[in-house]
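Q&A log
Question type: sequence-to-structure
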Amino acid sequence: MKPLKTLPILYNGTHCYNIELQTSFEGLADSLKELEMLSRRVCIVTDSNVEALYGAGIQNILEAAGCNKVFCFVFPAGEEHKTLDVIE
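Response status: OK
Response body:
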C-alpha cells in the first residue's frame, strides 16, 4: 500500500527514517516485512485515548505478522504529557 504521505526524519542533516502516514492499518504487516522488522522488538508509543481505540488491534497485527516482541508505552492523553520528560 502506497503511503498517503511520507515524512523524512533527519538528524544533523542525515536521513534516519521515514514516517509514513496511512488511512488504515491494512498494509502494516506487509510494510514491516519489507522493512525486515519482524525479528526486531517493536515499541508502540501512544496516548491513552489512541491506545483505547487502536492499541489492541495494532498489537495483534504486529504479533500475527511475526514481530518478535511488542511493547506498548501509553502516556496520559493531553498536550501537557507530550514531552520528552514523559517519554524518558
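Response note: The radius of gyration is 14 Å.
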